[in-house]
Amino acid sequence: MESVLDNVNHGTRLVELSNEENMKHFTFNEDTQARPWWTPTTSVNFLSEPFDESSTPAYFRAKACEHKSMEKDGCKMKDAERKSLVPRLVYLSLRGSASSLRNNEPNGSGLDTAATEMKPLLEKYARSIGYSIDDALSVIFGMSSGKKSVKDFAPDIVSWMSFAVFINAWNLWSNESLIPRADQSRLSSWQTVDSLVKICIEEQLIDANRTLTSPGNNIPVLVQMITEPISWHVLVIQSCVRAIAPQGKKKKKGGPSERPNIPRLQAIKRSVQCIIDTLHSVQSWLSDQMGPEEKALDILLSYLQGASEDGPGHITCILEENSARHNPELGGQIAQSLETWSTAGVIRRIVGAEHKMLVELKKICDSKLKLLGSVSSALSSVLH
């Protein structure tokens, strides 16, 4: 991760890109209303080069211009702005959390500078989701305590989880705590993240239908939760443990009063266990989804046989009928694609892709569990 952050100049360049003036020049090729992926002929592809209004058909030109005025305030622009902030927030989170536990920053100057930079980034991140920072904090407190439903914030739930992780990291070392706490140990921010992670993952697993009956369902969101906010949280934990472990070993014989970081380490250890338990539940769900591909193929094909007129079986029949005869009204590209159409072949590819995605997600969980196991062992050696 350190090398990745180094390659992007610790995220500073991406933060510059998120400025309002630079965002004005952003365009999004995946927006099919402004940049359709197909054209009546094979000689033109709007995605192969920057959009040129003068060389495009009048219909698409008008559509693009109409949509371009709406694009700047759309969700894609907010998503791009928010994602541009993530690398810098990750870098500042790692730097600040480690430094706060080392207690070797002269007069805290480094921490003060980082804290001064991080707060406006957090405010900007919250605005990109559509909230002020105070209202955003109220949302994550509400979701983590069960007072607010996670489903009400489902479209941006991954961003909400990341926001909670960054707030926790900032709360570890900033003199201006945004999270109320009963004592001065700043443990409630860890508990907020732990609870939010657990609730959000549980909601995903409860709502997820079997992948065979709903191919794709919630897996992309589940993957995002594990590879983004949970990954950021694990990185913060690693940074804390690396900073404190040597100091903990030197003071191992001392009592709690001589080891002021013990409350924080205990909070970190609870957080590690929470993530371990959560990833185990994901693995259990994945195991239930995985089975022989041939059996999965037969099950999906059975859903297409004798289906109603408005169901997927009816659609595959239409495609197969058109693939068997030449229809000049379809156009060259579509007709060429239909020549190789096979319902069984398509279902086989869907099943194969699903299985591959499940296997890859399981590998990610295995890797994180192995890492968290070593972190947990390191914490145990320091705490005992």
List keywords for this structure.
single chain; 384 residues; mainly alpha; 2 domains; 16 helices
Describe, in plain words, how this protein is organized in 3D.
- With 384 residues, the chain is mostly helical.
- It has 2 domains: 25-71, no CATH class; 75-292 and 351-383, no CATH class.
- It is 68% helix and 0% strand.
- It has 16 helices and no strands.
- The model is unreliable at 63-72, 181-187 and 247-252 (pLDDT under 50).
Q: What percent of the residues sit in helical stretches (DSSP H or I)?
A: 55-70%
Please tally the β strands and state the result.
Answer: 0
The main pleated sheet reads as: none
Structure annotation, total helices: 16
| Percentage beta strand | under 5%
Rg over alpha carbons: 25 Å
CA(first)-CA(last) distance: 30 Å
Molecular shape: globular
Task: Write the element-wise H/E pattern from the N-terminal end onward.
Answer: HHHHHHHHHHHHHHHH
| Secondary-structure-derived class | mainly alpha
